[in-house]
Amino acid sequence: MTPTALNGLKVLDLSRVLAGPWASQMLADLGADVVKVERPGSGDDTRSWGPPWLQDAEGRDTADAAYFFCTNRNKRSVAIDMATPEGQHLLQRLAAEADVVLENFKVGGLKQYGLDHETLCARHPRLVYCSITGFGQTGPYAPRAGYDFLIQGMGGLMSVTGRGDAEEGAGPQKVGVALTDVMTGLHAAIGILAALQHRDRTGQGQHIDLALLDVQVAALANQAGNYLISGKVPGRMGNAHPNIVPYQDFPTADGDVILAIGNDGQFARFCEVAGRTEWASDPRFATNAARVAHRATLIPLLRQTTVLRTTREWVAALESRAVPCGPINRLDEVFADPQVAARGLRVELPHPLAGTVPGVANPVRLSATPVVYRAAPPVLGQHTDEVLADWLRAGWPPGCERVPAG
């Protein structure tokens, strides 16, 4: 069997929707045994976030939406009702066997079930317990629910995303995927791995308090740095870059091309390809700082030039001179791209109803302990009996509602 980085690690995943499941999928891809706890009858909220729906081998819609399949592979699903005393007892027993507990309930939401971090960490000092919330465990907003769209607005991302105020169609715009949730999931996985390293050295687990708002503000990166150092509030610039010119999209004879010119040498080579060598020596454009200062003059000149060739012609000519550029691909073009194909970014996993399910590969490439794609996202309750036998060496307990797989 292929060795995995996290072989033997047990993760009890009480999270749902995206941020928490994204973190646990990363751990599962790296080899952890992730047990996904779901509500009997309905499961993770994203199972119902369709259409589109997964189709079975006969082409009929199943009960699971496509959304669910982006973030739940390599996991085992158990259907346990934590609202019942029997379910709570069973989950407490599973937590006692786990190395990691991951949850994204509201602050204090699990205390009534005896599954909160204070209770479990006191009983099991080696436990790493990760809580994901909208606003964290402390502060005036701690009791509030948090959602990606809301946090993109509150955390500043939408203030710098979208067309500028002077342009047609101006206004704040969210990113096209739930990026704050995804980033929070990645930060959760990093925090969990750091806590496990600390536990291996000291024998002591810990509580990880992770907030979507914290992650979003931290991820403002250079935009936050620009504001904190200059005191000037950045605004929306469409696809332009606040610190680099030219670094945006430009029209071509048949579409658009992205220029991502990061230094003066690249700009000079672009000018040669474009037949405008005089721009490279023009004091208004010779350096990046000068191009930023004279953005309003340079960009229209570039647009007048880029429309003279097709996107394919620009990309071929500029790539031959090592000038960073590229097309703006639709998703069908993304998955047809030869580089995407060569990197194996589309994977097919076996599924008990559909036969196989397509997905996107994990981008982490480890030379000694690579990601192993063991299983597609599970059917609701598919592994309940199996997990009880593996983790607790027990069958289904009396008085606990049993949900058949599927």
From TrEMBL:
It comes from the Bacteria. Signal peptide: none annotated. InterPro entries: CoA-transferase_III_domain, CoA-Trfase_fam_III, CoA-Trfase_III_dom3_sf, CoA-Trfase_III_dom_1_sf. Keywords: Transferase. One of its GO terms (molecular function) is CoA-transferase activity. This is Crotonobetainyl-CoA:carnitine CoA-transferase CaiB-like acyl-CoA transferase.
